[in-house]
Specification:
It is globular and about 55 Å long. It has 13 helices and ten strands. The two termini are about 25 Å apart. The chain is an alpha+beta fold. It binds 2-oxoglutaric acid and fe (ii) ion (FE2).
Length: about 375
């Protein structure tokens, strides 16, 4: 079977086997801060103008396949205005309750804000998302978060990183060696609700990085082709990206904080369901998994009744990947008290927040939970 993605890192990785790592080749997040005081190497490159994902469907898909990301125009001005009005309301209502240290404002709109449901099924992006994931029948929604950032009070200096792909089930080695590479296991869409340019932070990607987690090695391999690409565009612009592509929230290039502006972003994560086999016949792992639970984000990944039990079969299928926490919530009759997370609430906060990040899962418990979730997901496919 031919490989469909030829990022150079995948061929280099084999040749390097057994060689000693260069000392600067630290893995993980530390390895992605090679230059003091700079995010990445500071080698800034630019993406072409956003594609119209309907009129330029094939071109947008081809660009994605080559680079691991693509930028498209998604929301209309009317949609941006309407969604921002909802965000204004929940920001005013929740205040500091949704301020997460180091993260800015974080809200999970899926549970109580049906106003955003259309962004999951958006006609501009869903067909392209589905094509990348190998068909709408294999496309599942697993997370939705809203993030707000303000100059000075929000954090600066996020490291370049891949988002942990497949809840840690897919190792770097598997990502580097599987043939064919695509379709990916997970795909993110980042949609801007505010204009993004050099005065704001920008979602930024390292093209062709989906098969590594270290930008130093990638730069060695790509040479002059290596670049860090801030996604700039008007509100309504959307970046569709392999979840394992290396990315960050790039600080505003404008360093005078009095000239910096705030930014709002919507982040959806889709997973590929169904079975895929490698060229050698072995079963590919990592597909269709719910995201691992984070304690400070208790309502992350929960799906409300109107979607999980929708009578519309296409909606129900889209929301059919359930974590064990989801099953516990359903067993509790979708009770508000069970969620108790201001980061997904609407209206006045009910009772104490039971999952404020102080509770920690032991490693053993977390592993058992993942194993159970895996078994359940597999039995539903
Ligand atoms: O806010 C951004 O631009 C990127 C955030 C990020 O890395 C993430 O949500 O995984
Ligand atoms: Fe990330």
């Amino acid at each position: 079977m031919q490989d469909n993605i030829s990022d150079p890192i995948s061929t280099i990785a084999k040749q390097e086997g057994g060689q000693k790592k260069a000392s600067r080749d630290l893995s993980g997040r530390l390895g992605n801060m090679p230059v003091e005081g700079v995010q990445g190497f500071g080698i800034i490159k630019h993406h072409p103008p956003p594609f119209d994902p309907v009129a330029q469907f094939d071109e947008a898909f081809d660009f994605y396949e080559e680079h691991g990301y693509v930028v498209v125009s998604q929301l209309s001005d009317g949609e941006v205005t309407a969604l921002n009005a909802v965000c204004d309301a929940f920001n005013a209502e929740r205040g500091a309750e949704i301020d997460v240290p180091g993260q800015g404002q974080l809200l999970f709109p899926l549970l109580n804000y049906p106003e955003f449901d259309g962004t999951v099924f958006h006609p501009k992006t869903l067909p392209l998302v589905a094509r990348i994931l190998g068909g709408i029948e294999n496309t599942r929604h697993i997370e939705f978060n809203y993030r707000g950032w303000q100059p000075v009070t929000s954090d600066y200096g996020m490291e370049f990183h891949p988002d942990d792909c497949s809840g840690g089930l897919l190792t770097l080695d598997q990502r580097q060696t599987r043939r064919p590479y695509g379709p990916p296991d997970m795909l993110s869409t980042f949609t801007y609700l505010t204009d993004v340019d050099r005065t704001t932070p920008a979602f930024a990607v390292v093209p062709k990085s989906r098969r590594t987690h270290n930008i130093q090695r990638l730069r060695d391999v790509l040479g002059d082709e290596y670049g860090e690409v801030p996604i700039w565009g008007p509100a309504g612009t959307c970046c569709i990206v392999d979840r394992s592509t290396i990315h960050t929230r790039m600080d505003p290039l404008e360093k005078d904080t009095s000239k910096q502006r705030s930014r709002r972003i919507l982040h959806h994560v889709f997973a590929r369901a169904g079975e895929l086999r490698n060229a050698d016949g072995s079963l590919r792992t990592g597909n269709g998994e719910p995201l691992a639970l984070t304690d400070w984000a208790f309502s992350r990944g929960l799906i409300p009744k109107r979607l999980a039990l929708s009578e519309d079969p296409e909606v129900a299928r889209m929301f059919s990947v359930w974590s064990t926490r989801q099953e516990e919530w359903m067993a509790a009759g979708f009770s508000d008290v069970f969620v108790s997370d201001p980061k997904s609430a609407r209206g006045p906060t009910l009772g104490p927040y039971r999952n404020d990040g102080k509770q920690t899962l032991t490693k053993k418990k977390a592993a058992a939970r993942r194993k159970r979730a895996k078994r359940k997901t597999a039995s539903r496919k």
